[in-house]
Amino acid sequence: MSGWITEALHGDFHTNFRVNKVLFDNQTEHQNLVIYENEIYGRVMALDGVTQITERDEFIYHEMLAHLPILAHGNVRKVLIIGGGDGGMLEEVLKHKDVDKVTMVELDRTVIELSKEHLPMICGDAFDDPRLDLVIKDGCLFMKECCEKYDLIIVDSTDPIGPGEVLFTDNFYTDCKKCLSEDGILVTQNGVPFHQATELKSTMSFFKPIFEETTCYMATIPTYVGGPMAFGWGTDKAGLKDVSVAELQVRFAASEIETDYYTPEVHRAAFALPKYVQELVD
Ligand code: SAM
């Protein structure tokens, strides 16, 4: 591989990245894994031809999927991450000193090993944190057998193709709900609704019968082309998405976390949905 790499996730719409240097290109036990360098985006990881994460804009995705639900909840102690092999989500979650334990369930050990080697800017030392319980397993199977309760479950998955498909099913979400504490929150990577409307609509239709409050919130991440990305939100504690900016400011200051995208104001605004997205949620 040299020159350009094409991502063909969206059918008739393809994205090209120039490849300056290939760092890894091989088949793992579960998927094709490529890590390469691009002038604008830095190091980029792709699985089965789909861009997963880039050094340059990963902060937007990870900050919004980690800090937003943790600060909305206000007392998160136990977190479960499904997927997230690059370690970026883990790193953000572990920045919260009140988080006592993080269980991360990743299907593909090679993604973790290669991320540690080639993407240290994304995962830092997160995999060495004593609060981490790392499980190498299919996330769907893990949830089926899980008997623990978590304050927050983050589904940091690939798109609903290949091994990630099971993480977008009714059964999986129902098993997640069963493992949430009473006021727990489930958040999910739900694609770019302009290109992947069915994905969000389907997740929301599965969330509705199992959660009191279901919606999505949004952030624009340049790598995931086609407009803002949607993050699914499900909880039985109504009102968690409506915590005031003033209260979020207090919680954010107390966390002493520094961010490049997340602010309490952005947090509240992320729940304001454009009409075409609200219609998918309803
Ligand atoms: N930010 C990315 C995105 O939006 O596309 C997702 C990043 S992360 C690299 C996705 C991870 O999900 C991968 O490491 C992949 O191995 C993992 N994964 C896919 N299917 C899985 C499954 N069934 N159980 C657990 N992990 C899974």
From TrEMBL:
GO molecular function: spermidine synthase activity
Cross-referenced Pfam families: Spermine_synt_N (PF17284), Spermine_synth (PF01564)
Keyword Transmembrane helix: no
Pathway given in the UniProt record: Amine and polyamine biosynthesis; spermidine biosynthesis; spermidine from putrescine: step 1/1
Gene3D superfamilies in UniProt: Spermidine synthase, tetramerisation domain, Vaccinia Virus protein VP39
Domain PABS: 2-236
Tree of life domain: Bacteria
Role description: Catalyzes the irreversible transfer of a propylamine group from the amino donor S-adenosylmethioninamine (decarboxy-AdoMet) to putrescine (1,4-diaminobutane) to yield spermidine.
Subunit-level organization: Homodimer or homotetramer.
Record-given protein name: Polyamine aminopropyltransferase
Source organism (scientific name): Kiloniella antarctica
Gene behind the chain: speE
